[in-house]
Amino acid sequence: MTERLRFNGRRRLALAGLGAAALAASGAPFAREAAVSLAASSAARAAAGAAVASNPRVVVLDWPLTEVVLSLGVVPAGVSRPTWYAKLDGVPPLPSSVVDTGLLYQPNFEVLESLKPELIVITPWHAPLRALLERIAPTLTVQLFGPGIDVYPAVHAATRKLAGALGREAAANALFARADAALADASARLAAFRATGRPLYLLRPIDDRHIAVFGKNSLFGGVLGALGIDNAWQGMADPQGMTEADLGALATRTDAQVVTIGVPPGVAAQLARSPLWGALPFVRQNRVRHIGPLPALGGVVASIRFADSLANALQGVTT
Amino acid sequence: MNRPTATVAFAAPRAWRLPALLLMLAAWLVYHTLSARLPVAQWPGVVLSGADATLPQLVVRYGWLPRVAIALISGAALSLAGVVFQQVLRNPLAEPLTLGVSAGAYLALTIAAVVAPALVADMRFTVALTGAALAMLATMAMTWRKGFAAVSIVLAGMIVNLYCGALSVLLTIVFERSLTSVFIWGGGSLVQNGWAGVVWLLPRVLACGAAAALLVRPLTLFSLDDGSASQLGMSLAWTRPVALAIAVILSAFVASAVGVIGFIGLGGPVLARLMGARRLRDQLLWAPLVGALLLAIADQAVQSLPGVLGELLPTGAAVALCGGPLLLWMLRRLHVDAPRPASVERAAPRRALRVPVLLLGGLLVAAVVISLCFSVTLHGWQWTNAQHWSDVWFWRVPRLTASLGAGVMVALAGTILQRVTGNPMASPDLLGVSGGAMLGMLVAAVVATEPSTPVLLAGSAAGALICLLTIVTLGRRSGFAPEHVLLAGIAISAFAQAVIMLATASGGAYANLLRPLQYGSTYLIVPATAIAVGVCTVAAVLVAYLGARWLEILPLGANVADALGVGAQRARLLLLAVAAILTAGATVVIGPMSFVGLMAPHLARLLGFPRARSQMLVAALIGGLLMVLSDWLGRNMIFPQQMPAGVIATLLGGPYLMWLLRR
Question: Is this complex's ipTM strictly greater than 0.85?
Fold first, then answer.
C-alpha cells in the first residue's frame, strides 16, 4: 500500500493527459485535468501503440469492469443493462451509443454475435457461459472479488490485466499515478482524524432495521487500509467485502466513528426515530458523517472518488 | 343446539406434553441467547436502570427484547389467521401462504418498491394490505360459483400464489438492484430497532383476536355443511366475508410488520389439533399460543446459530427449513377429516379426438416456425432469411427443442400425477417434485467444480426421485389420501424454497448467479442438452402410451384395479417414478415453477378428453405449444433482456385457468 501512496511526480506529469481523458467526465474533482487533457489524449494513444486496434471492440458483462474499461479510455461496444451502470452511480459515464446486451448473467447471445466484438470481458461468475461466449469472440475472465481475495489489490491487478489486453498500459499507469496522488492528498487531509486513533464503520443503510457494512476485504475497506485508518467491522464479510447486520451488531466498538455512504431516501428519517440507533455511542456522541452515493464495487476511479469524499466528510473531525 | 362437554378435548394426559416441551425449549433458547449478550447479573438493569443503562443493556432493551415480543405476537397472529381460514374454508391446508395472500402482499410491495420507493418506507401496511386483499378476492372470485369447495379454493389460492410469484420474478429480474430491502422483507426478518413495531402490531392483533373470539359461535357452525348451517338460522353470507376479512387483515398486519413468514399458519393449528384441541374454541385459544412459541423458538434458534449464518439467515426461511420436515413427521399422526373430493370434474361432453388434435398440431407447427424465424434484433422485428440462418440457428434451435420437450414432459408428468393420486391439484410443482428437482440441481451446481448439463440433470433427477419417494412412503400409510399427499408436497416445496433462499441469500454474486437458475430458463441450452431433452421426450411419450391402461384403471380405486389384474401398488409406484424422471428432465429447462404441469391436463379434460390416452395426447400438445410460445415471448418481449420461459408460461396460462375454474 505504501508504494501506492508514494507521489510519483514525473510519471504523473508525463501521463496525466491520458488518464485525465479517461476521467474527463467524472465530475467536479477532475474537471481541471479534463480541460487540459483532451488535446493530449490522441497523441498519448498513438504512443501507446500496441498491436490491438486503436479502439478495440469490447463487450463488458459487468458494471465494475465497465468502469475499469472506460477509465482506460476504451468505450465498450456493448454492456449489460447500461442503465444500471448509471443507476449504480458509475463514473466515468457511459456514452448512450453503447449497446444493451441484456441481463448481467444472461446476455443475449444473438445481440453479442451481431456486435462482432474482438474481446468479451467477463467475471468468474460467468463461467457457465464461457464456452458459449468463446464461440462469438475471445473471452477474458477478470476477477475483482471472490472467496479469500481482497478487492482493493484485485482491482489494481484487474486494471493491469485489462490494460494489457486492450493495449492501454500507458493509460493504466496514468490512472495509478492519479490514484497515488489522490490517496496522498486524502491521506494528508485525514491526518487529524488519524491522530484520534478511532476505528471507522463504513455503512450503507438498507432500511430502518438492516445495514450493509463494508468489511476489510471490500474495495473501500482496502482504501481505508491504505489511508492508515482502522476498519471497526472485524466480523466476516461476503466475497465482495460486504455484510448485512442489524443495529445491535454495531454496538461492539464504542469508540468508533461512522461514515454512511448513500443513505436511501426516507431511511435517514426512520433511523433518527429508532431508539436503538439513538442509543449507539457514535450517534449519541454525534460521530456520524455522510457521503453521497458511490458504487460499492468499482475500479480505481471508484476508490479515488471514495478517498476524496471520505477526506471531505471527515474534515474537521479531530476528537 | 347440543354442545359437547368441554373436558373431552384434553382428556388424554399426553396432550400437555407437547406445549410443555415447546415452552421449555423456548425458555432454554431465550436464556441461552440472552446470557450470550448480557451476564445474568445485569438482566434487571435492562428494564429498571432507565437512561443510565449500559450499552449492552440498551441493545437488549431496544433490539433483543422487542424481537422476542414481535416473534411471539407474529406467531400468534399467523396461527390465529390459519385457524380462521381453515375453519371458514373447511380446509386443513388453508393459510396465508397457500391462499395466495402472502404472495399478493409481496407482489404489491415489490411493485411499490419499483414505482415509488419512498412509499414503501411509510406506507408498508397499506401497500401490503391492498395486495393481500386483492389476492384473497381473486381466490374467492374464482371459487364463488363452486360454493368455496375445499379443494378448489386451495387450487385457486395456489394459482394466485404462482401468478403473483411469476410477476414478482419478472420485476425482480428487471429491477433486482433496487429491491434489496424487499428481498430481506420477503425472507421474513424479525430484527427490531425499538419498541415501535411491537407497539404498532400488538393492539391490532389483539383487536383482530377479540373480533375472532366474538365470532366463535357462528364460526363453529362452519363445521357443518352450508345447508345444515343455514337451517340453524345462521347467515353464512355475512359470517364468511367478515371472518375472512379478519384473517386477511391479520396476515397483512404481520406481513407489513416483519415480512413473509409461511408455515406458522399451517403448523400452529396442526400442532394444536394434535395436542387434542378438536373444538374451534379450543383451537382459537391453543393454536395462537403454539404458533407464538413456534416462531419464538425458530427465531431464537436462528440467533444462536454461530457467526454469519445467524446474522444472515432470515427467520422466515428458517421456519420453513424446520417447518417442512416437522410437518412431514406430523403427517404420520395427523387425521384429515375432509371428505375426498371427486377425482375428476366432468365439465364438457366427450369429443372426437381428430379435429382438436389436428388443430393443436397445426398451431404447434406455426408456433415453431414463428419462434425460429421471426424475432427482434438490434434493428427491430425481422424475418430471418436464409443467409442469416447460419448465424442464429445455433442459438434458437436447441432452445426451441428443449422448450418443446420440457413442455411435453411436464404435461405428461402432471397428467400421470393427477390420475395416479386421484387428485386434480396434483402437479409436479404442487407436489414438491419440482422443488426437489431444483434442490438436487442446486446441490449438484454447488458441489461440482464445473457444473455441466449431465451433472445438473443427474442431480435434478436424484432430487425429484427422493422427493417423490418421500411422498410415496408417507402417502402409502394413508392410502394416498389427496390431503395427505398435498400436505406432504407443500411441506417439501416449502423446505426446498427455504434451502434455495438460503443459498441465494448468502454471498451477493453467488445469489445473482443462482437466481436465474432458480426461475428456470431455456437460456443455457446447448445442442447436447437439447438432444438429451429430446430423447427423454420421445421415451416419455412411449412410456406414457404404454402406461395409459393403468392410468385408465387406477382412478377407479385399488380394488377395481386389483380385480382387473393390475397390481395397484406396483403400478402406482412405477408411474410415480416415471413422473419423477419426467419432472427432473423438465425442471432443468423450465425451472420449478412452470405451472404447465398443472394446467395442461386440466385444459385437456375441460376441452372434453377425460380418457387417459386422449387426455395425455392433448395435454402434451398443449404443454409443448405453451412452452414454445413462452420461450419465444421470453426472448423477444423485453428485448434484449430474456425472461425465463417457465415464468412466461405461468403468466400466459394463468388467466385462462382462472377463467376455467370460475366456470
Answer: no
Q: Which residue has the higher pLDDT, A70 or B447?
A: A70
Number of domains in chain B: 2
- CB contact under 8 Å between A145 and B509, yes or no, is yes
Query: By the CB < 8 Å criterion, does B516 face chain A?
Result: yes
A210 touches chain B (CB under 8 A): yes
Best mean pLDDT range from A89-103, B49-63, B138-152, B465-479 = A89-103
Residue A208 belongs to some domain of the structure: yes
Same domain, B64 and B203: yes
Are A100 and A169 part of one and the same domain? yes
**Most confident of the following: A307-311, B232-236, B322-326, B434-438:** A307-311
Write down which residue in A126, A150, A181 finishes a domain: A181
Average pLDDT over residues B372-378: 85
| End position of a domain, from candidates B280, B304, B331 | B331
Q: How far apart are CA B640 and CA B437, in angstroms?
A: 29
Q: Round the CA-based radius of gyration of chain A to a whole number and report it.
A: 20
- Same domain for A8 and A97, yes or no, is yes
Residue with cell 416415471: B578
Residue A11 above 50 pLDDT? no
- Same domain, residue pair A63 and A167: yes
Is A281's Cβ below 8 Å from some Cβ in B? yes
What would the pLDDT profile of A56-109 be if each residue is shown by its tens digit? 899 999 999 999 999 999 999 999 999 889 888 888 999 998 999 988 888 899
Judging contacts by C-beta atoms under 8 Å, the chain B residues touching residue A275 are 62, 193-195
| Pairwise CB contact (< 8 Å): A110 & B392 | yes
Q: What CATH number did the domain enclosing A47 receive?
A: 3.40.50.1980
Number of domains in chain A: 2
Out of B189, B308, B639, whose CB is closest to A236?
B308
Dist CA A292 CA B656 (whole Å): 48
Asked if B126 is an interface residue toward chain A (Cβ–Cβ < 8 A), one would say: no
Q: Give the contacts of B528 (CB within 8 A, at least 6 positions apart).
A: B453
> With an 8 Å Cβ cutoff, are A110 and B513 in contact?
no
Residue B601 covered by a domain: no
The residue-averaged pLDDT of B45-54 equals 79
Distance from CA of A11 to the nearest CA of B (A): 37
CB pairs under 8 A between A and B: 145
Same domain, A215 and A172: no
B positions 525-554 inside 8 Å of A (CB): 526
Q: DSSP letters of A233-301?
A: --S---TTSEEEEEGGGGGG-TT-EEEEE-PPTTHHHHHHH-HHHHHSHHHHTT-EEEE----SS--HH
Assess if residue A74 is contained within a domain.
yes
Contact A106 B194 (CB under 8 A): no
A266·B121 Cβ contact <8 A: yes
Residue A283 lies in a domain: yes
| Domain shared by A168 and A285, yes or no | no
- Domain extent at residue A267: 190-313
Closest A-chain CA to B396: A110
Tell if the CB–CB gap between A208 and B193 is shorter than 8 Å.
yes
Flag whether residue A106 sits within 8 Å of chain B, measured between CB atoms: yes
CA–CA distance, B582 with B578 (Å, rounded to integer)? 6
CA distances (Å), B553 to each of B549, B558, B560, B607, in order? 6, 9, 7, 21
Mean of per-residue pLDDT scores for chain A: 83
Residues B522/B403, Cβ–Cβ less than 8 Å: yes
Looking at the fold, whether B104 and B221 belong to one and the same domain comes out as yes
The domain boundary residue, chosen from B588, B604, B624 = B588
Domain that holds residue B120: 15-39+51-331
B451 part of contact set with chain A, CB < 8 Å? yes
B287 to A141, A251, B17, B73: CA distances (angstroms): 55, 37, 15, 12
State the CATH number of the domain containing residue B469. 1.10.3470.10
Residue A84 forms part of a structural domain? yes
In residues, how long is chain B?
A: 663
